[in-house]
Fold this sequence. Notes:
The chain is mostly beta strands. 0% of the residues lie in helices and 52% in strands. The strands form 8 sheets. It has a 4-stranded antiparallel β-sheet with strand order 3-30-29-28, with no helix packed on it. A 4-stranded antiparallel β-sheet has the order 4-5-6-7, with no helix packed on it. A hairpin with a 5-residue loop joins strand 6 and strand 7. The protein is globular. The relative contact order is 0.15.
Amino acid sequence: xxxxxxxxxxxxxxxxxxxxxxxxxxxxxxxxxxxxxxxxxxxxxxxxxxxxxxxxxxxxxxxxxxxxxxxxxxxxxxxxxxxxxxxxxxxxxxxxxxxxxxxxxxxxxxxxxxxxxxxxxxxxxxxxxxxxxxxxxxxxxxxxxxxxxxxxxxxxxxxxxxxxxxxxxxxxxxxxxxxxxxxxxxxxxxxxxxxxxxxxxxxxxxxxxxxxxxxxxxxxxxxxxxxxxxxxxxxxxxxxxxxxxxxxxxxxxxxxxxxxxxxxxxxxxxxxxxxxxxxxxxxxxxxxxxxxxxxxxxxxxxxxxxxxxxxxxxxx
Length: 316
């Protein structure tokens, strides 16, 4: 009898063990070297076919996720790109910059559609709600703002403290998580604050599992913390990076978690047990961004590097 699937029991939860998950090749599928600023911010399109990346000349570069070939450039910002996000339908991008603007772009025409009315405030993090109706903006002033897409309507939520450096919506769009310099992750449900989760240092990265059951957070402490969403019970703590955790991404099947760090590495973990699986790198610079899609895993920081992922999807 061939075993196709197995499970760990972690904290009373039945969690799939990645028996079918193969290690990523240490040799990248493609690599685009660059200087500081190139790839510091990354976002995969919803279908996983295109990768949007910040560039050192303040443009947004859209790459073919499978080959790394440049497809187009969106120009207009005159300061470093701080954050970007795709609309759920893949037709628009939103970006923030040190030029104190937040801009919405039509990807098909490479045209700037509008600017979000945030005054001259720096926006450090962006997240487009999966419903497409709202975009969350994390301000350097410690305020989380919700912009109603396509309108001039912006409303404020009370943030967890100064410098909102990370934002993430749950896959169903019901929950929003935010974290920053205060070292606390605040979670809202339908616009109402429901939980503050202490991390113990600056929060740099947040990521929900694809099924919405887990929230991962990393930052200054060099550890990745997991919480089970149902009762906000703490799960495994992932340790290993030598320095800050700057980025997080779940595998599409949800059984692995990648972290990018100031130690120039990408680390891959078995999400259910917290067991370290693989270390990729060193890369040319600190890994400020990671994204994981059907084509594989991508990491950014002083360049962009992609590894193919041949692991089969979990069987139903």
